[in-house]
Design goal:
heterodimer, A: 728 residues, alpha+beta, Aldehyde Oxidoreductase, domain 4, seven-stranded mixed β-sheet, six-stranded mixed β-sheet, 24% helix, 24% strand, globular, B: 328 residues, Enolase-like, domain 1, five-stranded antiparallel β-sheet, FAD-bd_PCMH_sub2 (chain B), oxidoreductase activity (chain B), FAD-bd_PCMH (chain B), oxidoreductase (chain B)
């Protein structure tokens, strides 16, 4: 499964080199060096295989049948016509599917009961000798459903809203310091506004897809997942297998954005189907099927209340977030959590409420919590700046906390102020002396039919680290094989891990091979939460340092003929870290224009300045920031999953209707980062950068639209339909 | 996908005879019908590929008109220098459609036959009178932000998605056909239709007929024509609204004007009421506004597409004003 075969520009150690020479030290550091992705060539030429691209002899193909009611029961499934279809090998439904052992995620208990909890839920699977036959068979399965009245629309006054114990990522649902109402009452300037963000879908390039086969009681799957360790553990639980009997391979993954952060029904169904027909099975969901089966970001309704004294110091911050979950399990988007540490204020209240509807279960999507939360908070800060006649950059700087304002623990590092200042100067918001040169008046800059404005917003994302294991092996010809079960979902993970390994081994990078994407390597954490590089990199660093030490100490600096191998586990180090508030911060600036004739909104320019610890690879890091900001722009202007309340499905269920930004929408995006040294993170000094780019972008755009037009848009996306009636 | 047969047409008349007899479907660029077959919206038993027929010529007619072979690629016509001089609105409409890849593939004849993008038409699990007559219209009370404000019926609120068709309506284009009875021709205004109580019919094309060419009649005013398409996404999106306009202003007075709207109705919407209001009137913003209001008086917006009324009004005024200023 190694993927380092193609490195045409790097010299490799010569074959046949005399063995047992001393290990050669690196002449230069690899971390910090700009380097293209190892698998770039394979990706752009289509050689990198995704989950169903792997050639597996004798494979059959599965096609799912989905419910057409949002709530009800499957009364009966007539498979006779499907089974009579040429090529159909079998049909699975709850009447004949094997029993699964619960592992705590009801979405994975596929075909276990007659209950229908949302429209689009899988109610049967047809397996056939070709995808065409499987699909034709699926059309012939007759599912008799008994539908009941369903409830699919999130409302701020929904009677079933409740406060959960916890929200996503384990935060408490409610946090209160002081008295927000009293703080607001004492404030000279107040904002009380409600913001709405729509349901959104990830739309990764590779659909959720699996190839599965059983071999002597063991289950092997190729799965498009961000977390093959978690998938293997889950499958072992569901199928009651010893953990070592399940192997999940995800060598290349065509994007995930959170929707592949855990196992999804496709991998379970493929394994069940493979067992049913006794041969390998490939299951790739269609784009349309993904909109029900693969998760989405919940819509949110968020009320933000801010109160400030005449000097611009915040006296109160209130952030109340409402979101939805399914009838199957509770997922609560942690939209208000960022308001617990962004700004100082003596009186603070953040709450989350959720309602279980007859809808699919929402999941992580690109900065869950921070992404929708920052739209609300950072728009409200801008509204406060307008109301108090303060510069929005200055207002943020004036409310910078010295320590975490709720937990009273130190920040491991925090350079939001520097990001704002650096960004303001680069953007032309301030001059070189730091004086604000931006005209704060809204709706006064015209360019033909267009009104032009600028906006700013702050970004943040937690710097998480999770235990992982890694393996480092030296061979006598001075090759170093480093294995860690990372998932490279298009981020450049394997490339940066190889750089980290080379430095930890202190050898030239050409001597290092990196292998990722296979649960057989050993447990490692998800490619999610922007914690991959920190978590996998720590395990890699530990394994590599131990290996080099052992070579020096036990073998006099020479690798013995049989090689040396070291396995490392970072569980204890991570458990024993001192308490700090660890986050990356950033500032985003936007110039937008709005047509007074058509209401069309276009973004001219985006600038992001980030402080995210050490940057391992400037090439892949820049792509991560730009990609995040592009997705933020897309969410600001375009992305919107429309649910039909009568049927409970997303009618915008393909890429013809669910519009993501195209190249023509994406302006000049400038990205810069500060050289941030933080000794309290991990041996590499890295913070995650996968998600912070999407945090704050939508608010920066909305704030620029307000500056351009004087119109405050509090519902995303910002489209011409809501601009047209308000422009004069 | 249901299995289907595929044939290459040897000659236009035999293809027409086969289609008329069997109810098979023509295949040209395939940029719409193939998608619809994948979705199960349409399921022909036989596709007759007409791309080998000699229907690709772009002729500049001596009288100032043009004849465009039905199999001409959108991108080839859009870049034709004669078209850009004689009918700039047509070129602009073509270039605003789809993506470069699709424009290379799609044909002029096929463009006129593309189906609505109404979300309920393309989802076979939903009710749609256009797809299944009598099934009901799920769009009227559903997601209809992109759908019709003019000329809709109880049975159907679909819009025609074509940009080209709007520009063709502006210049009174004619559609040349080959039917079982021989060559025929119809005005683009007769070709497209409103849904009424037969929403399953997009056009008045006779059954089995093959579009062979589109004729752009000599239209001097079209040399001063334009097309403005509005959408949230900058590219690769159907219009939220569009306007094709041609204007002849002399001494501040409208000598002649033509206006057509896209994305507002089941057909390209020629704004005759607005044209009548403006002909002979001073070319002022007030008159442009009044003309748009007269045209839009018939608008019956649905719950979520009312934004199209001010949009089309603004577009009418803005585009005409821009053309007036340009002509000074």
């Amino acid at each position: 499964m190694t993927s380092t075969q193609r490195q045409p520009t790097q010299s490799q150690p010569a074959q046949g080199q005399p063995t047992q020479s001393r290990v050669q030290d690196a002449a230069q550091r690899s971390v910090g060096t700009a380097s293209p992705r190892i698998e770039a060539w394979d990706k752009v030429t289509g050689r990198a295989p995704y989950a169903v691209d792997h050639p597996v002899p004798g494979a059959a193909y599965a096609w799912v049948v989905q419910s057409t009611v949002a709530r009800g029961v499957v009364v009966d499934v007539d498979t006779s016509r499907a089974l009579a279809e040429d090529g159909v090998l079998g049909v699975l439904w709850h009447g004949n599917a094997q029993r699964l052992e619960s592992v705590g995620d009801p979405e994975l208990m596929v075909l276990q009961s007659a209950r229908i909890a949302y429209r689009g839920q899988v109610v049967a699977v047809v397996v056939a000798t070709s995808p065409e036959a499987a699909r034709a068979g699926a059309d012939l399965v007759r599912v008799r459903e008994d539908g009941m009245t369903s409830d699919t629309v999130l409302r701020i006054d929904h009677p079933a809203l409740y406060q959960p114990v916890q929200v996503n990522a384990g935060y408490p649902a409610r946090s209160a310091i002081g008295d927000v109402d009293a703080g607001l009452a004492a404030a000279a300037v107040r904002v009380d506004a409600t913001y709405r963000t729509p349901a959104e879908h990830h739309c990764a390039m590779e659909p959720h897809a699996t190839t599965a086969f059983w071999e002597r009681g063991c289950l092997v799957v190729f799965d498009g997942t961000q977390a093959s360790t978690a998938v293997s553990e889950t499958l072992a639980g569901l199928f009651e297998l010893p953990p070592q009997s399940v192997r999940v391979i995800n060598e290349h993954v065509g994007g995930g954005f959170g929707s592949k952060g855990g196992p999804k029904p496709n991998v379970v169904l493929a394994a069940m189907a493979a067992r049913l027909v006794g041969r390998p099975v490939k299951l790739a969901l269609t784009r349309q099927q993904l909109f029900a089966v693969a998760g989405y970001r919940t819509p949110t309704i968020q009320r933000v209340r801010l109160g400030a004294a005449t000097n611009g110091r915040l006296l109160a911050i209130g952030h109340d977030a409402v979101s939805q979950t399914s009838q199957l399990s509770e997922f609560v988007e942690q939209s208000a959590v960022l308001s617990r540490h962004m700004y100082a204020a003596p009186n603070r209240l953040t709450t989350h409420r959720v309602v279980a509807l007859d809808v699919p279960t929402p999941v992580w999507m690109r900065a869950p919590g921070e992404c929708p939360g920052s739209f609300a908070l950072e728009s409200a800060i801008d509204e406060l700046a307008s109301a108090g006649n303060w510069d929005p950059v200055r207002l943020r700087i004036d409310n910078e906390p010295a320590v975490h304002p709720e937990e009273q623990i130190p920040f491991s590092s925090r350079h939001l102020v520097q990001c704002l200042q650096e960004g303001a100067e680069r953007f032309g918001w301030t001059d070189a002396s730091g004086r604000v040169v931006r005209d704060p008046r809204p709706a006064v800059r015209r360019d033909g039919e267009w009104l032009v404005g600028t906006g700013v917003a702050a970004s943040t994302y937690p710097s998480l680290t999770w235990p992982s294991t890694a393996l480092a092996r030296a061979t006598a010809d001075q090759r170093f094989d480093v294995e860690v079960n990372a998932a490279d979902i298009g981020t450049g993970a394997r490339t940066v891990l190889r750089q980290i390994a080379a430095d930890a081994l202190d050898v030239p990078i050409a001597y290092v091979e990196i292998t990722v994407g296979d649960s057989a390597i050993g447990p490692a954490t998800v490619a999610g939460g922007s914690m991959g590089t920190a978590s996998w990199g720590w395990a890699v660093t530990k394994a590599c340092r131990l290996l080099r030490e052992r070579i020096e100490r036990d073998h006099g600096g020479r690798v013995p003929t049989g090689g040396v191998a070291v396995r490392a586990d970072t569980t204890l180090e991570i458990r024993d870290r001192p308490e700090f508030s660890r986050h990356a911060y950033g500032a985003q600036f936007c110039q937008a224009r709005v047509s007074t004739m058509t209401g069309e909104v276009r973004v001219d320019r985006l600038l992001g300045v980030f402080a995210a610890g050490r940057i391992v690879n400037p090439t892949t890091a820049r792509s991560q920031f730009i990609g995040g900001m592009t997705m933020g722009l897309s969410g600001a202007l375009l992305e919107r999953s429309v649910l039909d309340s009568r049927t409970g499905d997303f009618v915008t269920g393909d890429l013809a209707a669910y519009h993501v930004a195209v190249s023509a929408d994406v302006p000049r995006i400038e990205v810069a980062w500060l050289d941030e040294q933080d000794p309290h993170l991990n041996p590499m000094g890295v913070k995650g950068i996968g998600e912070i780019g999407i945090v704050g972008t939508a608010a920066a755009v909305a704030n620029a639209v307000h500056h351009a037009t004087g119109i405050r848009v509090r519902d995303l996306p910002i489209g011409l339909a809501q601009m047209i009636g308000k422009l004069h | 996908m249901k299995p289907f047969a595929y044939q290459r047409a040897e000659a236009a008349d035999s293809a027409v005879a086969t289609i008329s007899r069997t109810g098979a479907a023509y295949l040209a660029g395939g940029t719409n019908i193939v998608d619809l077959m994948k979705l199960g919206v349409t399921a022909p038993d036989l596709l007759i590929d007409v791309t080998g027929l000699p229907l690709r010529d772009i002729e500049a007619l001596p009288d100032g008109g043009m004849r465009v072979g039905a199999l001409t690629a959108n991108s080839d016509l859009a870049t034709d220098p004669v078209l850009r001089t004689r009918f700039p609105a047509v070129a602009l409409a073509l270039l605003s459609g789809a993506s470069a890849q699709l424009r290379n593939r799609a044909t002029i004849g096929g463009n006129l036959l593309q189906r609505t993008r109404c979300r309920y038409f393309v989802d076979v699990t939903k009710s749609c009178n256009k797809r299944r007559p009598g099934a009901g219209c799920a769009a009227r009370e559903g997601e209809h932000t992109d759908l019709a404000i003019l000329g809709a019926s109880e049975q159907c609120v679909a819009t025609n998605p074509s940009d080209l068709a709007v520009a063709l309506a502006l210049v009174d284009a004619r559609v040349e056909l080959l039917t079982e009875g021989g060559p025929a021709s119809m005005s683009v205004h007769e070709f497209f239709r409103l849904p009424g109580d037969r929403p399953e019919r997009d056009t008045n094309l006779p059954p089995g007929a093959l579009i062979t060419a589109v004729v752009l009649p000599a239209t001097p005013i079209a040399r001063m024509s334009t097309y403005r398409k509005v959408r949230d996404r900058s590219s690769f999106a159907f219009a939220a609204g569009s306007v094709a306009a041609a204007l002849d202003v002399r001494d501040g007075v409208v000598q002649d004007v033509r206006l057509a709207y896209g994305a507002v109705a089941h057909r390209p919407w020629r704004a005759y009421a607005a044209e009548r209001s403006l002909r002979g009137a001073p070319a002022t913003v007030d008159n442009f506004e009044r003309a748009a209001d007269e045209e839009l008086a018939a608008a019956k917006p649905l719950r979520d597409n009312g934004y199209k009324v001010p949009l089309i009004r603004n577009l009418t005024v803005g585009v005409l004003r821009g053309m007036t200023e340009a002509s000074w």
